[in-house]
Amino acid sequence: MSEQSRTMRTPCVLAVLFIALCVTMPAHAQWMPSGGPEGADLQCLTGDGANVFAGTYGSGVFRFNGTTGKWTRTTAVSKIRFATAIAAGDGRVFAGGLGGHVYRSTDEGASWTAVTPPAVSNRQANVLFRADGRLWLGTAGQGMHWSDDDGTSWTAVDVGATSATINAFAADGNVLYCTGVGGSFVSTDKGATWTAMQGPEGLSILAAGGHVYVGDRDGLSFTTDGGTTWEAVMAPDLLGRTYSLALHGGAVFAGTGGKGLFRSTNNGATWDVLAQDLAFTRFTALHSASGTLFAGLLGAGVYTSTDNGETWSPRNTGLNATPVNCLLVSGSAIWAGCYGTGVSMSVDDGASWVTRNSGMTHRLIYGLAEVGNSLFAASYGGGVFRSSDGGAGWEDVSAGLTTTRVFSLQAIDGVLYAGLGGSGICRSTNGGDTWEARSKGIESQSVFAVRRVGSRLFAATSSMGVCVSDDNGANWSSTGGTLSIRCLAVMGSMVFAGSGKNGVLRSSDNGATWVEHNQGLAATDIRALWADDEVVFAGGADGRVFVSTDRGDEWEDVTDAMAVPGVYALAVTDGWLFAGSWGGGLWQRPLSQMIVSVRAEAPVADFHLSAPSPNPARDHTSLRFTLPQGGHVRLAVYDMFGQQVA
Fold it and tell me: Among 34, 134, 152, 453, which residue has the least CB neighbours within 10 Å?
């Protein structure tokens, strides 16, 4: 039992007291990953026998079992959350990530041991590569290292002052190749010495049959004479960065950022354009295994092809780590808007999810809204899509938008407000059929949220703080400051604003003034807010979740063991709090484990309120109450007329 006392000032004689309490209880259970949506921010792929391993940005390493066709999360997330490099072979798996950390597993990812080179610190592990039993590590800024004892000891290799960043390795027989800042290099003595090739500064490299292919920021080049001369590939639309290369079925495959996948069956002379329906995202990794080509995509997880790249299918069962940018509760359903996988829906409180993307040609979703029987999804780079059949099919309704870079979407009394990237706001009053600019005063701002209190609209902007409009968005003015405001929430007449560096601000006077309310709020970069009449939740870019039951005066950290890169969306439905993260997937937790609300005019079970002392009182009194356990308590006092007086 926990006994507490509060001294409260009140302007009336306390003959009858009505007490309202909201208690934040300590947690006994933890957050759990939701049953979806499927997908992940894939960084790298490798394989060893029947297993394929995937490194994700935010959720560590996953293992794919070819027999079951499912992915399972390894324990690497507790060691290395951002897995940017991975290699496997001879029953061993190696994973590297931010900070240069390298870990080794000999039991298919069930446990991991640190094997980081002592000379590597605070630098990213760009690539891990195995050749002839030797393990190679390429870093960002600290060159390359090799180990012949599975990482127990390391030897640094000097390939020149301009090549401190190594992005990729390749082998063709006994010849080794690497590429990075400073160009491409070749070694014919197992890496003891390296010779510079006159090639590009690559992001990816592939060597086969005397051909060396290097993908860089401008496309793809190859050489057939050891690097003396290079030829640029002139494939259709092969522009921008080439992130991944692989040899599969006798063909060379090149994965790009935003232009799709390319294949050459004649040593680079001509190229076919593949997977155009997946071209909206980045092909970050390619891996060939037992007749199947695996492709890792930014946000969209893993796709596979068994017909040499002609057709592709998602292979994401169990890979629940997709970036979730927004959430929408509609009746008994909860919708998730994801970066790369589009829109998914659950009708069983997150236990299972169904992807609903038919007709959605661009799937980097940042906002969801509902007007009548229609759903709307905002895509960054793809505009706005509408579904009139519960998400079964989508149509593009972007005509009239001043840009297709849409960061947010809000429905207010049947009117849609689209927050744009660098272009203010557009509004639709007819369900997306037409749009009109409503950006006077914020024309150059990115708008991350729109809310309304009374007749006043509030907009969260990129560098003008919170802006307001009293004429339905025709004109906007800043309420002061140059903060970047990332999210908004409304509790009655109060407005909460999550800022990029100053935590949570609150206005109780319709936006005239704003005050920081960060007591107990350790996070300063707030990316998500959710509020009702009693409680407000805040999600931080550092992955933590906080709750306040006293209108933001004090906050309690309820993150516990949830390990995600950042919380970007929050929603409450059917007694669950859902938290969408960037790279960590969707997580959920029962509200009953975080908040217990008690409203009573008389004592209830396990709760005792002693008589006020003194009573009667002129200007203050003390109230003593007992709870079954300690917790954060908000105590409000009402007079006999129902007015809150303390």
Answer: 152
Q: Which secondary-structure segment (H or E) carries 607?
A: none
Instruction: Please name the residue that has the structure tokens 């935003």.
Output: 258
Please tell me what DSSP assigns to residue 148.
Answer: S
Q: Nearest CA to 286 among 264, 300, 303?
A: 303
- CA distances to 459, 460, 475 from 481, rounded to whole Å, are 14, 12, 18
Q: Do 347 and 362 meet the contact criterion of CB atoms below 8 Å apart?
A: no
Matching residue, tokens 């947010």 = 408
How many helices (H) and strands (E) the chain has is answered by: 0, 64
CB distance 469 to 456 below 8 Å: yes
d(C-alpha 439, C-alpha 635), whole Å: 43
pTM of the model: 0.81
Residue 26 pLDDT > 60: no
Bridge pairing between strands 556-557 and 545-548: antiparallel
260: confidence class by pLDDT, cuts 50, 70, 90:
confident
CA nearest to 42, candidates 349, 239, 296: 296
Record the tokens describing residue 166, joined without a space.
């190594």
Contacting residues for 100 by C-beta, under 8 A, at least 6 apart? 116, 117, 120, 121, 122, 123, 124, 125, 139, 142
Mean of the per-residue pLDDT values for the chain? 87
Q: How far apart are CA 633 and CA 517, in angstroms?
A: 17
Task: Give residues with Cβ within 8 angstroms of 13, minimum separation 6.
Answer: 616, 617, 618
- Could you say which DSSP state residue 591 is in? G
- If you average pLDDT over residues 225-245, what whole number do you get? 80
In 3D space, the residue among 230, 184, 232, 236 whose CA is nearest the CA of residue 205 turns out to be: 184
Whole-number Å distance between alpha carbons of 481 and 465: 6
Separation between Cα atoms, residue 527 and residue 452, nearest integer Å: 19
pLDDT bin (cut points 50, 70, 90) of residue 23 is very low
The residue assigned the tokens 């079951």 is 68
Identify which of 441, 437, 363 has the alpha carbon closest to the alpha carbon of residue 396: 363
Whether 421 and 403 have beta carbons less than 8 Å apart is answered as yes
